[in-house]
Amino acid sequence: MIDWLVNLDTQLFLFFNNALANSVFDRVMPIITNDWVLRVVLLIIVVLLLIFGKRQGRVVALLCVVTVMLSDQVSSHLIKPLIARVRPCHVVPDVHLLVACSQGLSFPSSHAANSFAIGTLISLSYRRRVWLYLTIAGIISYSRIAVGVHYPFDVLAGTLVGVLCASAVFAAYQYVGVWLDKRKA
User: Fold this and answer.
1) How many domains does the chain have?
2) CA angle 115-120-124, nearest 5°?
3) Distance CA 169, CA 64 (A)
4) Around Cβ 133, how many Cβ atoms within 10 Å?
5) pLDDT over 70 for what percent of the chain?
6) What global pTM score does this model have?
7) Pairs from 99-106 (Cβ < 8 Å, separation ≥ 24)
8) Average pLDDT along the chain
């Protein structure tokens, strides 16, 4: 069963990485997947929430930081060492590699975990443009396959980690808020 899943994941990787490769992706995906671009985007989100978000925005900004810290720790320091999956750029022939292939582990994708953690948390807090937040997280996550450094199942697992971490942080925040309201009454 495991061999079948690994083979399926490899075939899906080759389809997304090779068959869907094009000159636009070759230029755009390395920018989208860049760590510094993601950090700047997160910083902009937090600053905008702090400036324009009133009380709820300040709370969401703080929760974004907590959520990303949690999702990053769970994906990078808990799950990756347990699974110890090698990146496709080290083992799959004919990878369409657009960035340097790091020595880090592959499963789950921390980019997917962190981007979906933010997208989910903001979606839970601001329901008006859920499609936008999750689409941006999806594009960031897909970029990891397009540049050749993650398998699709890495991205799916990272997505799940991000959604679960954001949901847990949001639920904890709501629980604490209800608990504090009861104490005041």
Assistant:
1) 1
2) 155
3) 9
4) 23
5) 96
6) 0.89
7) 99/30, 99/33, 99/147, 99/148, 99/149, 101/148, 101/149, 102/149, 104/80, 105/80, 105/81, 106/80, 106/149, 106/150, 106/151, 106/154
8) 91
How far the first Cα of the chain sits from its last, in Å, is 56
CATH number at 73 reads: 1.10.606.20
CA-based nearest residue to 145, from 108, 175, 179: 108
Domain span holding position 90: 2-184
Q: Give the pLDDT confidence score for residue 182 in this predicted structure.
A: 62
Packing angle of the helix pair 110-125, 152-184 (nearest 10 deg): 40
| pLDDT tens readout for residues 130-185 | 899 899 999 999 999 999 999 999 999 999 999 999 999 999 998 887 665 566 65
